[in-house]
Design goal:
Blueprint (H helix, E strand, L loop, with lengths): L9 H7 L3 H11 L5 H12 L4 H5 L27 H4 L8
The structure holds iron/sulfur cluster (SF4).
Length: 95
């Protein structure tokens, strides 16, 4: 780490506003942990206001971090089955 986060500093106060589950990783990132993976993950989390689903579904393909963002659905992963009843047209087609 480059520097520890000082109590009462802007960074430390920001950490306290985050959900508990993200505080450690954001602290590591802001303290200069030399891990690009951590930096990318925390940037994406802050970009989406700590919403993993938004990261997974991020469509900003022109973002330099897009290809490296966490929580991507791996290729070959099964997609949720389409609900046939919901996918069916709601109006009848007359011939
Ligand atoms: S990849 Fe998407 S979620 Fe991550 S920083 Fe870029 S725009 Fe934000």
């Amino acid at each position: 780490m480059k520097h520890p986060l000082k109590e009462g500093s802007r960074e430390a106060n920001y950490i306290l506003t985050l959900p508990v589950r993200y505080r450690k990783i954001m602290s590591q990132s802001l303290a200069g942990a030399n891990q690009s993976k951590v930096a990318i993950k925390t940037k994406c989390l802050s970009c989406t206001n700590m919403n993993q689903t938004e990261i997974t579904e991020c469509r900003v393909s022109i973002c330099p971090l897009w290809a490296y963002r966490p929580y991507q659905v791996k290729k070959g992963a099964k997609k949720a089955p389409i609900d046939v009843l919901k996918a069916a047209p709601t109006t009848e087609i007359s011939v």
